[in-house]
Every structure is written in C-alpha cells, then in structure tokens.
C-alpha cells in the first residue's frame, strides 16, 4: 500500500473520532484531489489556485 493510500485511510479513521478537525479535512481533500507533494516524510498541501494553474 502506498504512503498516500495509507495516509488517506488514517485520516478517514481520525475524522470519525474528530469530525471537526479542519486541518485533517483539508489534507484529506488535497490528497484525493492530487494537490500535494512529499517533502521528505511530510506532506505539503498546494493551494487550490496553484493546482488549477499547473493542470
């Protein structure tokens, strides 16, 4: 299983217990939309405007 899929599953499980976590929701949406890049072990979210222009 890829890092992306593992992180998506982990965030979905986290959001079941903490449904109002805005940062987790934003990260989950970015992963599903492809608006992210890996910087080492961490994930950086690209803004919605930048992702739209690069596509």
Spatial arrangement of strands, main beta sheet: 1-2
Overall mean pLDDT? 90
Oligomer: single chain
Structural class designation: alpha+beta
> What's the total helix number?
3
What string gives the helices and strands in order? Answer: HHEEH
Percent range of helical residues:
55-70%
Determine the strand fraction and express it as a percent band: 5-15%
Form type = globular
* N-to-C CA distance: 26 Å
Write the layout of secondary structure elements.
Layout lengths: L2 H15 L4 H12 L2 E4 L2 E4 L2 H7 L1
Antiparallel strand pairs: 1-2
Helix pairs in contact: 1-2
Structure description:
The structure is a single chain. The chain is of the alpha+beta class and about 55 residues long. It contains 3 helices and 2 strands. The protein has helices at about 5-15, 20-35, 50-55; strands spanning about 35-40, 40-45. Strand 1 and strand 2 (about 40-45) form a beta hairpin. The mean pLDDT is about 90.
């Amino acid at each position: 299983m890829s890092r992306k899929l593992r992180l998506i599953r982990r965030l979905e499980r986290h959001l079941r217990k903490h449904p109002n976590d805005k940062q987790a929701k934003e990260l989950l949406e970015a992963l599903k939309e492809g608006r992210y890049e890996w910087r080492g072990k961490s994930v950086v979210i690209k803004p919605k405007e930048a992702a739209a222009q690069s596509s």
